[in-house]
Specification:
Blueprint: H1 3-31, E1 60-62, E2 65-78, E3 91-104, E4 110-123, E5 132-144, E6 149-161, E7 178-190, E8 195-208, E9 211-212, E10 218-219, E11 226-240, E12 243-256, E13 269-282, E14 286-299, E15 307-321, E16 324-332, E17 346-359, E18 362-375, E19 380-394, E20 399-412, E21 421-433
Antiparallel strand pairs: 1-2, 2-3, 2-21, 3-4, 4-5, 5-6, 6-7, 7-8, 8-11, 9-10, 11-12, 12-13, 13-14, 14-15, 15-16, 16-17, 17-18, 18-19, 19-20, 20-21
C-alpha cells in the first residue's frame, strides 16, 4: 500500500471517529433537557430489550392482526472489505432495507409473519461487482395448549451472500457467493410443576450458487450444498426460585448433496452432544444460563479428523443498575467447512458487552470479544480480536437513527498473509417505521 493511500485511509478513519464522538455528544446535549433517563425495571429484561411505548411503532391494525412497515437506510465505510492484509481495499457500502411484519393480537396463541430485503450498493472495490440483493420471508407461531404446555414452530426462506474474504469463498471471485437457505423448526416445553421437559427438531438446507471468476469461468460450489438435521431433548428441575438445573442431549446429521467434494473428500457426518447446566433468573440482579458437556462429530471420510471435544456455553446479563446491563458470553462450536483436509472449524469465543440507557430514547452500547478457531487436519489456528460501539436513538415513534464502529483483527499461524487482516467499519443509519 502506498504512503499516500495509507495516509488517506488514516485520515478517513480519524474523520469518522471524530464524527462518531461528535454525533453522540450533540445528541446528548440537544435532548438531555427534554427527555429524562428512564427509571427502568430490570424485570423488563436487558436495556436493549426494553420498550418505551411513546417511541414504539404502533403499526396499522387489520382486524386481529397488526401490520408493521419499516424502512432503513445505512452508509458504512469499511477499511479492508476483502479481509486481506497484503492488499487492503476500502469501500463505501450503501444499504436500503425495506421490511414488513404482520403480528397477531390475540389473548392466546401467536402468529407472526415477516418479509424483507436489503439492496447493497458498493463504491470503491476493485475486484468485480460487489453489489447485492438479499431477501427473506418467514413466520413463526406459538400454540398455548395449557398454562404448562407450549408448542412453537417457525420456518424461513432466505437468499443471502457471503462476506468477502471467507475461508470457503474463492479469492478470485468477481462477485460475492450467493446462496439460498431454508430453515424450519418445531419445539415444545411442558412444565407442570418444578419439573420441566422440552425438546426441539431443526432442519437447515443450504444451496450455493457457483462463483464467477475475474479471469473468466466459475468455481463449482455444488459440493457445499447440504442438509443439516438436529434433534435436542432437555430435562430440568427447579431447585429453588430462580435456579433450575438441567441435563440435555442432542443428535445431528449432515448430508452433503455431492458424495465427494472437489478435493475428493466425503464430508457428510453425524454426531451427538450431552451437557449439564444451570439456568439462573434472579429477576432484579442476574439472568443467565451455563452448561458444560461433551461433543462428538464423526465424518464419513476416514481422511477427515473426527471431532471429540468438551463443550461449554454461557450467557449472562447482570443488571448493574436500573439503566445499565453488563453482558457476558462464552461458547465452543463445530462449524462446517470445505477447506482441503480440514474436517470442521472449531471456534472458542468469549464476549463482554455493556448497554446503558442514557435517555428513554437513547441507548449506548460497547462490546469486545476474542475467538480462537482451530482447524483439525492442518494445525491452523486463527486468533480474532473484535471491539465495537454503537448508539441507538429514537427521535419519535416513527423515526430512528444510529451510528456504529467495529474493529476486527485476525492473526493466523497458517503462513498465508491472506488469512491475516485488520479492518475497521464506521456506519450511520436512519429509518422510518409505522
Amino acid at each position: 500500500m502506498s504512503a499516500r493511500r495509507e495516509g488517506s485511509r488514516k485520515m478517513v478513519t480519524n474523520y469518522f471517529r471524530l464524527a462518531l464522538c461528535g454525533t453522540v455528544a450533540a445528541t446528548v446535549l440537544a435532548h438531555a433537557s427534554t427527555v429524562n433517563a428512564q427509571t427502568a425495571d430490570p424485570e423488563a429484561g436487558r436495556v436493549t430489550d426494553r420498550r418505551a411505548q411513546e417511541f414504539e411503532a404502533q403499526g396499522v391494525r387489520a382486524g386481529s392482526f397488526v401490520f408493521y412497515p419499516k424502512t432503513e437506510v445505512s452508509e458504512t465505510y469499511n477499511s479492508n472489505f476483502y479481509q486481506d492484509r497484503s492488499d487492503e481495499e476500502d469501500v463505501w457500502i450503501t444499504e436500503i432495507s425495506p421490511s414488513v411484519a404482520l403480528a397477531s393480537d390475540w389473548n392466546r396463541h401467536q402468529v407472526n409473519l415477516d418479509a424483507g430485503a436489503t439492496f447493497g450498493l458498493l463504491a470503491g472495490g476493485r475486484r468485480g461487482d460487489d453489489d447485492f440483493i438479499d431477501y427473506t420471508i418467514g413466520g413463526r407461531g406459538q400454540l398455548d395448549v395449557s398454562r404448562a404446555l407450549t408448542v412453537n414452530a417457525n420456518a424461513r426462506f432466505s437468499n443471502e451472500h457471503e462476506a468477502r474474504g471467507g475461508d470457503d469463498s474463492p479469492t478470485g471471485a468477481s462477485e460475492p457467493t450467493e446462496f439460498d437457505q431454508i430453515q424450519a423448526a418445531i419445539s415444545g416445553r411442558y412444565k407442570p410443576n418444578r419439573v420441566s421437559v422440552g425438546g426441539d427438531f431443526q432442519l437447515r438446507y443450504f444451496n450455493y450458487d457457483d462463483s464467477p471468476l475475474l479471469g473468466g469461468g466459475s468455481t463449482n460450489n455444488d459440493d457445499r450444498d447440504r442438509l443439516a438435521l438436529r434433534g435436542t431433548g432437555r430435562l430440568g428441575y427447579e431447585i429453588q426460585s430462580g435456579y433450575e438445573g438441567y441435563v440435555s442431549g442432542s443428535i445431528n446429521q449432515v448430508d452433503y448433496d455431492s458424495k465427494r467434494d472437489d478435493n475428493g473428500l466425503e464430508r457428510s457426518s453425524n454426531g451427538y452432544g450431552i451437557a449439564a447446566g444451570v439456568a439462573i433468573e434472579l429477576t432484579r440482579l442476574l439472568r443467565g444460563d451455563f452448561n458444560i458437556g461433551w461433543r462428538v462429530q464423526d465424518f464419513d471420510d476416514g481422511a477427515l479428523e473426527d471431532v471429540q471435544q468438551w463443550s461449554a456455553n454461557a450467557q449472562f446479563s447482570w443488571f448493574v443498575t436500573n439503566v445499565t446491563t453488563l453482558r457476558f458470553g462464552f461458547g465452543r462450536g463445530v462449524n462446517e467447512t470445505t477447506i482441503n483436509n480440514v474436517s470442521a472449524t472449531l471456534p472458542t469465543s468469549i464476549d463482554i458487552g455493556v448497554d446503558h440507557e442514557l435517555l428513554r430514547n437513547l441507548t449506548l452500547s460497547a462490546d469486545a470479544g476474542y475467538t480462537e478457531t482451530r482447524h483439525p487436519g492442518n494445525g491452523r489456528i486463527d486468533d480474532t480480536l473484535r471491539a465495537g460501539a454503537k448508539v441507538d436513538y429514537k427521535l419519535n415513534r416513527y423515526v430512528f437513527a444510529g451510528v456504529n464502529y467495529q474493529l476486527t483483527n485476525r492473526d493466523s499461524n497458517s503462513g498465508h498473509e491472506t488469512n491475516n487482516y485488520f479492518a475497521q467499519e464506521v456506519g450511520i443509519r436512519i429509518g422510518a417505521q409505522f
